[in-house]
Amino acid sequence: MRELFKKYKSVVRFILTFLLTYIVMSFVYKFYLDFSDGSKYYPDYITNTVAMQTEDLLNVFGYESQALVNPDEPSMKLIVRDKYVARVIEGCNSVSVIILFVSFIIAFAGRKRTTFLYALAGSVLIYAVNLLRIVILSIGLFHYPWRKEILHTVIFPLMIYGMVFLLWMFWVNRFSNLNKENE
């Protein structure tokens, strides 16, 4: 058994580091959600901000829009030209995807500064692409509401997770210590 651990030491280290980072960051985020003050920013600050930024971008693109508090559930309604097209819930704010991304980057860490900067830049990019994803999805739902299922469950998740995968591959091949050990 000891030989097996020696042989797969880097794999075990990756899995344990990934899981520990993911669990800690998820716990911190859950704590934030449980104790966020929903009176000023509903349902929570990050989700509210994503909804408001989506409204702003839709307006910039010429789609008169509003992001309104949904009284029936913890979400924000997106109204495009007086038509309810989507809701922004906690799962739409990209935090869970960012936690997954950062956990992987830390598990395949390179130099500390490079790891930090790449995780930060990747997180900002994921947030921005997610915002554009919601804007484009809202426009798509405004024009093609009968395509909701394929737009929401296939095309747009593929967009965000595909980008995360490419960011991971770039990291592993360019900056991680694993790449340096194989050279």
Describe this structure in words.
This protein has one domain. The mean pLDDT is 91. It has helices spanning 2-7, 9-35, 45-60, 95-107, 112-143, 148-174, 177-182; strands spanning 65-69, 76-80, 83-88. By secondary structure, it is mainly alpha-helical. The chain is elongated and about 65 Å long. The chain contains 7 helices and 3 strands, in the order αααβββαααα. α3 crosses α5 and α4 (95-107) runs parallel beside α6. A 3-stranded antiparallel sheet has the order 1-2-3, with helices on one face.
Summarize the structure.
With about 180 residues, the chain is mainly alpha-helical. The chain has seven helices and three strands.
SSE blueprint:
Blueprint: H1 2-7, H2 9-35, H3 45-60, E1 65-69, E2 76-80, E3 83-88, H4 95-107, H5 112-143, H6 148-174, H7 177-182
Antiparallel strand pairs: 1-2, 2-3
Distance between the termini: 28 Å
Q: Which range does the strand content fall in?
A: 5-15%
Total DSSP E strands: 3
Helix/strand/pairing category: mainly alpha
Biggest β-sheet strands, sense, barrel: 3 strands, antiparallel
The value of Rg in angstroms is 19 Å
Q: Into which percent range does the helicity of residues fall?
A: 55-70%
Uncertain residue segments: none
Determine the mean pLDDT.
Answer: 91
How many domains comprise the coordinates?
A: 1
Helix-strand sequence: HHHEEEHHHH
Task: Output the number of helix runs.
Answer: 7
Global geometry: elongated
Strand order, sheet with most strands:
1-2-3
